[in-house]
UniProtKB/TrEMBL annotation:
Primary subcellular site in the record, as a coarse category: membrane
Source organism of the structure: Streptococcus bovimastitidis
Protein name: EamA domain-containing protein
Gene3D superfamilies named in the record: 1.10.3730.20
Protein's cellular compartments: Cell membrane
InterPro entries membership: AA-Vitamin_Transporters, EamA_dom, EmrE-like
One GO CC term on file: plasma membrane
Pfam families in alphabetical order: EamA
Keyword tags: Cell membrane, Membrane, Transmembrane, Transmembrane helix
Length: 300
């Protein structure tokens, strides 16, 4: 392997890891905000801010956007899978099921993504990648079961979680197939699609409930909601989406998928260190297995 390839793999791994760290830390900002407003309000504001940030960066020449390329329809489809369908499935799935059930479903994302890469991209994983992803999934499951197991038997919730899992897998595959666009361009399309859908839904929700004025004022009136919008809009949407797209372009779907469990580990650790939540031996084991799985998947 030449130095250029090694550098690309290293940058890809750093991007994938950083992306999952940013997603994992979002737990700190959204925990309280979720009790102050609806999920659609938070998503609507999140993507409105993210789009505003990207347009300002483009206006000042900080980023370059050229969307007049073949395959724009595929890029828009990518945006429909993630963030739109993924967040719809995740939001309603988590709301309709127990924490343990949603955790188990979402833990399967690396495996389903790997299978999708095999079927669509004909990208066969190495033994190390299969072993590493298996350990990562096991670590996430252990972390989920450490806080108890409950069942909701909500078939709607299960369907929504399945939608989230499949949508994320399709997103990963489409990123690798959308080579005509740069990571910044794909990120812009994803954010634009997310803005169009979630802002519209948030406005409809506000009109239906007669609380449209409250929707506009939320970030200013509720400081924790405003902080959540800032973090999710800039860190999780603009930066993390770009890092994810870049990682997939450099590492491929299988290697990038192995990092997904890192967000679970970061969420647990940040809750313990910054919110004073409990941390059991079983959770420690889960976190260690996640990190070992990531190492094994990317050591070669």
């Amino acid at each position: 392997m030449n130095n250029h390839s090694q550098k690309n793999i290293l940058l890809g791994c750093l991007s994938a890891f950083s992306c999952e760290v940013l997603f994992g830390l979002s737990y700190l900002f959204t925990k309280e905000a979720a009790s102050q407003a609806s999920a659609m309000a938070l998503l609507g504001w999140r993507f409105a801010l993210a789009l505003a940030v990207m347009l300002v960066m483009w206006a000042f020449g900080l980023i370059s956007l050229n969307l007049k390329k073949k395959g724009l329809g595929q890029a828009i489809l990518l945006g429909l899978f993630s963030p739109v369908l993924y967040f719809v499935g995740e939001t309603f799935g988590i709301k309709s099921t127990t924490a343990s059930e949603s955790g188990v479903f979402l833990a399967t994302i690396p495996v389903v993504t790997l299978l999708m890469a095999i079927l669509v991209l004909k990208d066969k994983p190495t033994k190390g990648q299969m072993m590493g992803i298996s350990l990562t999934v096991l670590g996430v499951l252990i972390s989920v079961f450490a806080v108890g197991v409950q069942a909701s038997f909500s078939f709607f919730g299960y369907a929504m979680l399945l939608l989230a899992v499949l949508s994320y897998a399709f997103y990963c595959v489409l990123v690798e197939k959308s080579q005509a666009f740069s990571g910044v361009e794909l990120t812009f399309v994803m954010i634009l699609v997310g803005f169009c859908v979630f802002s519209t839904l948030a406005i409809i929700e506000g009109l239906t409930a007669g609380k449209l004025a409250e929707l506009w004022a939320l970030p200013l009136q509720q400081s924790s909601f405003g902080m959540a919008v800032l973090y999710q809009g800039i860190a999780c949407s603009v930066l993390a989406f770009f890092l994810s797209n870049y990682a997939i372009s450099q590492l491929g779907v299988n290697r990038t998928a192995s990092f997904i469990g890192v967000s679970t580990a970061v969420a647990i650790l940040s809750g313990v260190l910054l919110l004073g939540e409990s941390f059991t031996f079983i959770q420690i084991l889960g976190v260690l297995l996640i990190m070992l799985g990531v190492y094994i998947s990317n050591r070669g």
